[in-house]
Amino acid sequence: MYDFWLLDLDGTVVDVEPRYRHRVFEAVGDRLGREFTHEEVETLWHGLGGPRSEKLQAMGLDPGTFWPALHEAEDPAARAEATFVHDDAAALLDELDRAGRPVGVVTHCAPFLANHVVDHLDLRSRFDAFVTCSDDLGWKPDPEPVHHTMDRLGVDPAGDGVLAGDGSSDVGAAWNAGLDAVHVERHGPERRGQCVLADHRVERFTDLDDRVLRN
Questions:
Q1: Could you say which architecture CATH assigns to the domain 4-15+81-212?
Q2: H/E/C letters for each residue in 16-78?
Q3: Which residues neighbour 164 within 8 Å (Cβ) at sequence distance 6 or greater?
Q4: Sequence spans of domains, the chain
Q5: If 116 and its partner were Cys, which of 80, 123, 173, 186 is the partner (CB 3.0–4.6 Å)?
Q6: Phi/psi at 193 (nearest 5 deg)?
Q7: Which pTM does this prediction carry?
Q8: 168-176 and 144-153 are packed helices; what angle lies between their axes, rounded to 10 degrees?
Q9: What is the rounded distance in angstroms from the CA atom of residue 137 to the CA atom of residue 125?
């Protein structure tokens, strides 16, 4: 088993019920003067088919306008209520707790949302470090947020660690930081529009080889 584990949050450990994200995009559409199709909502929310900034530009949207509108439309309490923990992620956290492995989260989710989610779901005690990316800290696949999380964990950056996430940016951040990468594909390569390479590729964390999870 790896000495320490880093995890992405949204789409990896937790996910949001469809009704919430579609309601949010209705509000964003009101602000931007356009409607979003079901496919556009799913693509942008889950980051399917490549970087969101490129998808936004292809839709004729300015990322600098879209993201503030999205954050204005989000309600932290409502999002927390609509968020659930993936059962396979819960099983992974239980396994890591039994093994005494340090666990850190490095997420793109904005702090005003992420903090409500982890507190509402009683997840904060499951993590030894919790880091939200920012313009100052950097965004995955930049390795700096990963390095910062490892610093917060107090682990040896040259140690045997892994970062697990549902996006190609998570894999890139892991490799750029010198860690192994687990990609959990919750949507399928056909829907994602690409096959994401990683050291370990699974549809659920419970599919990980025993050699990855056992001492």
A1: 3-Layer(aba) Sandwich (3.40)
A2: ECHHHHHHHHHHHHHHHCCCCCHHHHHHHHHCCCCCHHHHHHHCCCCHHHHHHHHHHHCCHHH
A3: 5, 6, 7, 8, 12, 92, 170, 181, 182, 183, 184, 205
A4: 4-15+81-212, 17-75
A5: 80
A6: 85, 5
A7: 0.93
A8: 70
A9: 23
123: nearest Cα among 169, 171, 80, 74: 80
Amino acid at 26: E
N residues, the chain: 215
Six token digits for residue 34 = 């356009």
CB burial class (10 A; 0-12, 13-18, 19+) of residue 37? exposed
* Cα 43 from Cα 25, distance rounded (Å): 12
Query: Are residues 201 and 183 in contact, defined by beta-carbon separation less than 8 angstroms?
Result: yes
Digit-by-digit pLDDT tens for the chain (215 residues) are: 899 999 999 999 999 999 999 999 999 999 999 999 999 999 999 988 878 889 999 999 999 999 999 999 999 999 999 999 999 999 999 999 999 999 999 999 999 999 999 999 999 999 999 999 999 999 999 999 999 999 999 999 888 999 999 989 999 999 999 999 999 988 877 676 667 889 999 999 999 987 677 65
Answer for the pair 59, 66: CB distance below 8 angstroms, yes or no.
Answer: no
**Dist CA 61 CA 78 (whole Å):** 26
Ordered DSSP codes for 72-138: HH--HHHHHHTEEE-HHHHHHHHHHHHHT--EEEEE-S-HHHHHHHHHHTT-GGG-SEEEE-BTTTB
